[in-house]
Amino acid sequence: MMTKRLALTLGLGVLTACATVKNSTTRPDYAQVDKQRVKRLVVVTQPLPDGKQPVGELWSLIAREYINQNRDFLVKQNLTQEAQATDASLKALCTEGFEGVLLLAPQVKRTQDGADTAVRARLMRCADGEDVWSAEASGSWDSRDEKFRERVEHYVKQFGPEVEPYVVPTYKLLKATLDTLPNPELNDADKDEKIELGE
Asked: Which listed residue, 7, 84, 141, 158, has the most CB atoms within 10 A of its CB?
């Protein structure tokens, strides 16, 4: 009985550690409307996490690379915005070649050993500004994780030492969040284009 209870407690502990996504919603008509139309995205992070431009750039790049490697979207650009994101400012990003805008609205607070992070994410369809998907997630992680050592070095080299404490918490939060994205359907030309992205 004690073994069963211990296993259940441990199981719940593992569940709690992973349960960062509070909610995730995909349009009920996604399969009919967006699955074959919203594939090419631009990622924008706004406001700047912890008020720091390099950390905002880190967020957008991690999201771009993660989606290109693990989801079927084609993320072709990543950027940050200081000004408050509005439907009009997001729509302005819908230039030729983009079918959707993925907005990441982070809240980040440094802790002694890492960071408390939260994000509200939404995927807006360029054609009419409607949301295709949205999610909210949060979590707290240490900045040090041996499995992420090379990844941390990679981003520090790109954005400077200022981003180092943010890499692990940001990656873990965005992975959990972005794994709830639906997958579009790619045709052969799309698949070739995705290979060319090479991320």
From this structure: 141
How far is it, in rounded angstroms, from Cα 127 to Cα 151?
36
Residues 35 and 165: their CA atoms lie apart, in Å, by 36
Which pTM value belongs to this model?
A: 0.88
The distance from CA 64 to its chain's CA centroid, rounded to whole angstroms, is 8
Neighbour count for residue 54 (Cβ, 10 Å): 20
What residue ranges do the domains of the chain occupy? 21-188
Domain 21-188 top-level CATH class: alpha beta
Q: What angle do CA 163, 13, 121 make, to 5 degrees?
A: 45
Helix 149-159 / helix 53-70 crossing angle, nearest 10 deg: 130
Residue 96: which residues within 8 A CB-CB, separation 6 or more?
Answer: none
Q: Are strands 131-142 and 21-26 parallel, antiparallel or unpaired?
A: antiparallel
pLDDT per position in the chain (199 positions), as tens? Answer: 444 443 433 333 333 344 489 999 999 999 999 999 999 999 999 999 999 999 999 999 999 999 999 999 999 999 999 888 888 999 999 999 999 999 999 999 999 999 999 999 999 999 999 999 999 999 999 999 999 999 999 999 999 999 999 999 999 999 999 999 999 999 999 999 999 887 6
Q: d(Cα 178, Cα 131) in Å, to the nearest integer?
A: 15
